[in-house]
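Re: weekly structure request thread

Next one in the queue (173 aa):
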Amino acid sequence: MRTHFTAWLVNDVSCLAGDNCDVTVLPDEAHDYDNDGEEVISWVSTGTDVFQAETTVDARDGDINQAIREAEQLLEDAGWRITGSWEAVDNAYVAEVERWDSDETWTLQQAADHMGAASTDTASKALRRLNVTTVGRAPGRGGQSIYNTAEVMYAHATRPGRGARTDLMESTE
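Done, posted below.
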């Protein structure tokens, strides 16, 4: 599974809950299309946010450069790094981001906590359904399975909705 994330620095008050710019990281879904015989992959943000924070910059008349600096600091503090440049869109600025600690791992319990699962058994079943594989096992007799943090976050954020019949989906292989 390939993970791809976009940071959205929203500076349009009609899209904000408060008065200040906020930054949100959303997972992206790949969309393939043909552009005059050339195969192109386009990334579209989908799913549930995996990070969200508010800046101190007023969205109505604040300095967008200050908002970008604050957003970058908030992202860095949360383990994200900007991998592209900020680009203006209709109501925000967007940039590709990745976990700078992409080698970070979670135990099954940490993954369950992130997913809001009732138990580690429930989380384990959900991760199997989402095709998230273990990257190891914690030492000791009762050692839990270990998962890549970014993979868990991405799979959880882009999971199918309640009642989705994933067994009926067309194979991409």
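The beta strands are 5-10, 20-35, 38-45, 51-58, 80-82, 87-89, 92-99, 105-107, 136-137, 145-148. The chain is about 25% helix and 35% strand.
Next request, please.
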